[in-house]
Amino acid sequence: GEVQGSKALGIPQKVLAKLLESFSVAQTTERPQRGGRSGGSSITYRITNTLRDKLVLHILVLCLHTGPQFTVDLNELVDFLRMPQSQCRNLLRIVGAVIISAKDGAETGADGIKPGGDGVLAQLKAPLKLQARVRRR
């Protein structure tokens, strides 16, 4: 079936359908009957904590991949994702990133990293050291 809202969001139909399939749970709701006729049904999409984490993990990998030297500013991520820094750090570790100070991670300024900065960076380094995800209760 067609996913409603594709045009309003400016997202191609197939892309929106794949995003909803990958990161949400569809729920069918029956509409009340009117005058003896069926009210039909509607589909709403809900995101669980696990699926939210899955989406954030994908966003983190994309940010790290596009950042200079596979690096991203942790404070900017926390602001953008509106999540506690501790949770963001844990998710970054799951994808194999290490947390470093900007002073440690910056040799040159030409790549977009500020040398001697006082921020905290997350960086993907080879070889990756993946951490098993701890399940919430």
Automatic annotation (TrEMBL):
Pfam families: RNA_pol_I_A49 (PF06870). One of its GO terms (cellular component) is nucleolus. The keyword Nucleus applies. Keywords: DNA-directed RNA polymerase, Nucleus, Transcription. The keyword Nucleus applies. One of its GO terms (biological process) is DNA-templated transcription. GO terms for molecular function: DNA binding. Belongs to the eukaryotic RPA49/POLR1E RNA polymerase subunit family. This is Uncharacterized protein. It is found in: Nucleus, Nucleolus. Transmembrane segments: none annotated. PANTHER family: DNA-DIRECTED RNA POLYMERASE I SUBUNIT RPA49. InterPro entries: RNA_pol-assoc_fac_A49-like.
